[in-house]
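Translate structure to sequence.
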């Protein structure tokens, strides 16, 4: 009689063993998925913050470039330029400009060094001391151009004072002290021959969400002394 081997019998699945293995794999998969989701959810805020930081960094770079370009442009203006001239009888001239600007792009629309901008509107506010909040600055400046108010991303404030060269000395044997005091300012309308120095303070103020920066971010102040 031929001995029957197991291989000659019809195949019958071992349900208990296969079911146990399949169940264990499903549990492992669910646990792995839960761990992965936990890790992913924890990383999402990091990626979001990284994107916010990169955007803010780009806008801060724009603010720095804008400030540098403004400094260089004003430095090249003649001392009697209208933008640097005081109104008659005032010790200080304050002018506010709404600016539309962006980072400079090359012919392939890739960023290049520099900053491209255009002055949308300029308002002379006399000797007015302006508030810190950009929208309050705009309100006090009295801008009227609707397009400028809508598209202006930056506010540039230019303050100008004028002095004689002797203001740099302290009055004792002409020793230079390097300080220009408010009491030594020359009023607007003073003969040009008596004006040898102009102190120019430039403030770059981002308009909050319009510029991509939060209130207070990117604000820069530069002071230069321009000689005749």
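Result:
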């Amino acid at each position: 009689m031929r001995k029957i081997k197991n291989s000659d019998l019809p195949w019958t699945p071992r349900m208990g063993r296969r079911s146990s293995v399949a169940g264990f794999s499903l549990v492992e998969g669910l646990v792995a998925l839960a761990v992965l989701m936990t890790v992913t959810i924890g990383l999402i805020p990091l990626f979001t913050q990284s994107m916010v930081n990169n955007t803010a960094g780009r806008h801060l770079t724009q603010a720095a470039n804008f400030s540098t370009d403004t400094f260089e442009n004003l430095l090249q203006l003649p001392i009697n330029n209208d933008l640097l001239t005081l109104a008659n009888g005032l010790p200080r001239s304050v002018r506010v400009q709404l600016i539309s600007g962006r980072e400079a792009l090359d012919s392939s629309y890739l960023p290049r060094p520099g900053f491209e901008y255009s002055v949308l509107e300029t308002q002379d506010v006399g000797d007015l001391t302006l508030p810190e909040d950009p929208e309050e600055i705009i309100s006090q400046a009295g801008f009227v151009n609707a397009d400028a108010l809508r598209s202006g991303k930056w506010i540039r404030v230019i303050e100008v004072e004028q002095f004689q060269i002797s203001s740099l000395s302290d009055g004792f044997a002409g020793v230079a002290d390097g300080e220009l005091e408010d009491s030594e300012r020359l009023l607007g309308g003073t003969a040009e021959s008596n004006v040898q120095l102009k102190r120019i303070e430039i403030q770059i103020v981002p308009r909050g969400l319009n510029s991509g920066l939060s209130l207070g971010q990117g604000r820069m102040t530069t002071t230069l002394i321009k000689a005749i």
